[in-house]
Known about the structure:
Number of strands: 9
Strand content: 35-45%
Number of domains: 1
CATH superfamily: 2,3-Dihydroxybiphenyl 1,2-Dioxygenase, domain 1
Shape: globular
Number of helices: 3
Low-confidence stretches: none
CATH architecture: Roll
Mean pLDDT: 96
Radius of gyration: 15 Å
Helix content: 10-25%
Amino acid sequence: xxGRLNHVAIAVSDLAAAVANYRDTLxxxxxxxxxxxxxxxxxxxxxxxxxxxxxxxxLGEDSPIAKFLExxxxxxxxxxxxxxDNIIEARDKLKxxxxxxxxxxxxxxxxxxxxxxxxxxxxxxxxxxxxxxx
Length: 134
């Protein structure tokens, strides 16, 4: 069902510092910041030959990333994202197998302009998992 790894998301409290570190120290190609108000984050993507790293900075006080950073002040890996061919079919198959889809269960448009869903970390080895339609 899952396809390629789309990205690994890292929560950061200082997006500019994270970008500078990856761009200037590691020589990475980094996108411009993009506000995603529906998700409560500002994102930046680090482009790698085989996948991406997504930096997430809180956008507003109610951001889920702000809550994550309260528990993890130094930041850290927030989630992994896998591609699926059909997000509705994947959702239905996962729910039938007992996996919990977060929120109302309906896909939302993510930072790449494609439908995404999140799966409960307790169902996937303690890791918040995002599915993105390829």
